[in-house]
Structure formats: C-alpha cells, structure tokens
Design brief:
single chain, five-stranded parallel sheet, alpha/beta, 7 strands, two-stranded antiparallel ribbon, binds iron/sulfur cluster
Length: 184
C-alpha cells in the first residue's frame, strides 16, 4: 500500500496533455453564434441533444461546451430537456433499433422550424458500428438531416462552427416552413 502511495506521489499524470487552449477563438465563435441566432430567432438557440446509440465519446465533447472553458451558455446557446423547447436536434451515434422510434417521436415533438444536426462519424455513416446487427443506419436514414459535423468525436470548437454554418445557411423564412434547409 505504501508503495502505491509513494508511486502515485512521484509519478506524473498518465493522461494525455490537454490541447492548446485558445480562449480568443472560442469567444469570437461564440459571439458569432449568438449574433446569428439572435438575428434568426430574436433570442438564444435551444438545442436538444439525442444520443441515438453513440459510445458517449461525442457526448463528452458536447458536454464540454458547458464546462468552465467553453461556457457556451454565455453566448446564448442553451441545451434544453424537452424537444418541445428546441430549435435544433443534435443527434449522435448511429441510430440503433432501440432508439429509432424514440428519435422519430423526438423529431415529431419538436416545433417547426427545426433543424437536425448529425454530430460525429457514427451519426453520419455508422462509423465503427457499421454492419452491426443493432444498428438501423446513419441518422439520415431516419430523419432529414440538415448538417453533418464530422469527427470521432467532433471537437467542441467544430460543433460551434457547425452551428454557426447552420444558422447562417437558414436565411429565408420560406426555407424553414418544412423545418429543413434548402441545401442547394
Ligand atoms: S463518432 Fe466516435 S466518439 Fe462519436 S459515437 Fe461514434 S465512435 Fe463514439
């Protein structure tokens, strides 16, 4: 026991070093996201996150948006508990058979205009789960997807950039009637 305590005192951390922080870039992107959301909705952007079958790696990066470093809520981006309060469904993972109906119901409960963002390689094309008996397929097989954010998992900064691109693209109200973007 004493040996373990001594080793833990002299040994350095075994985890990888964190990536270089760039608070200025985060702040700049956050302000851009807030500006575009206010222009579009006249208020903050509400996101409902749906794990359709992910390994939770994507969720860790999404959770990071709320940590003390990114603190994305200061820019008016909120994660909400109900799809009835959401503008955007942020879906991770390949859609599993167990989650298919839940995902469809969540989409149906979200008021229009609404957008679906498929976050991570699994949401985009099943990723490492491709071919699994438990998987229906990518999110686009179940819901109309407006934006794909690649990565395994996508970095928080890429999630912010993706949301800005999504809001920027939704320029005219007529495009929002069906709750989808015109992707031409
Ligand atoms: S994209 Fe990577 S981190 Fe995200 S659910 Fe798939 S395997 Fe996990």
């Amino acid at each position: 026991m004493r040996k373990i305590i001594f080793e833990s005192l002299v040994r350095g951390p075994l985890t990888e070093a964190p990536p270089e922080a760039d608070p200025a870039a985060v702040a700049e992107l956050g302000v851009a996201l807030e500006r575009v959301a206010r222009r579009r909705f006249g208020r903050s952007l509400a996101i409902r996150e749906v794990d359709a079958g992910s390994c939770n790696g994507c969720e860790l990066e999404i959770h990071a948006l709320n940590n003390a470093f990114y603190d994305i809520e200061r820019f008016g981006l909120r994660f909400v508990a109900s799809p009835r309060h959401a503008d955007v469904l942020l879906v991770t993972g390949p859609v599993t058979h167990n989650m298919k109906v839940a995902l469809e119901r969540t989409y149906a409960a979200t008021p229009a205009p609404k957008w679906v963002v498929a976050a991570g390689d699994c949401a985009n094309g099943c990723g490492v789960f491709e071919g699994s008996y438990a998987v229906v397929g990518a999110v686009t097989k179940v819901l109309p997807v407006d934006l794909h954010i690649p990565g395994c998992p996508p970095k928080p900064i890429d999630l912010i950039k993706g949301l800005i691109a999504l809001m920027d693209k939704a320029t005219t109200p007529s495009r929002l009637v069906a709750g989808r973007l015109d992707r031409k």
